[in-house]
Amino acid sequence: MPAPIAAMLASTSDKALSWFTAGATRAAAAMGPLLPAAVAAMLYGMGAHADGIHPASVSRGEVEAKISYCQDCHGPSGQGYRGYFPIPRLAGQQVAYIENQLQAFVEHRRTNNIMFNVAHGLSPAMISALAADFRKFDPGPLGGAPPRLVPLGRKILQDGIPESNIAACAACHGPDASGHEQIPRLAGQVYSYVVNKLTNWDKERGQIPSKPDISAVMNPVAHSLNKTQIEAVAAYVSTLK
After folding, report:
1. Is 3-48+143-239 a CATH 1.10.760.10 domain?
2. What confidence tens digit (pLDDT) does each residue in 95-111 have?
3. Is the pTM of this model over 0.85?
4. 60-136: which CATH topology?
């Protein structure tokens, strides 16, 4: 198992760690040198912009204008949107994760033409300011997930699927799914958005093999989950506050 992954997992619980170790080892074997590079990139960036302080080069007025623009799609409280094209919750999201994803749109590591057009015009200072602001938002979950799937989703998040060598989501995202640094918060995320992303992961994330990022860690996980399991995880995390 690559050393960067072991370092990242130093603080995880024994139960979660055992399943993540198995899953990460399997992923490393499948991806060769890409996975260690991706995790190392994530670890390098941890803690860089977590203080929530707006850079001096961005005025409060500029930030508020951009927040208002983002709210047109992501909702007045950053709660996301449950529609034909689901739009993700940004409220309470990890600062480093938002920063990384906006840059991923610009670099085409993540494919989304609308978000490319939005992100490529943002300065690094503005990206950090927007991420810090959305981190402070705290609306309730939108709901709308099938309640019958919640128990299975809870089990997968907490325990994984041992018989399929799938690690517990909690090993990285935490037992409350709040995330950490470049590992995203899943708690309260829009149900249909999570289903869509997990179903289409390899078509939207890590699109530049020469520039691997932390999304590589999720490739084998998303690929291994069947439709019911994806919907169950999405249902459970969408209920968390």
Report:
1. yes
2. 999 999 999 999 999 99
3. no
4. Cytochrome Bc1 Complex; Chain D, domain 2 (1.10.760)
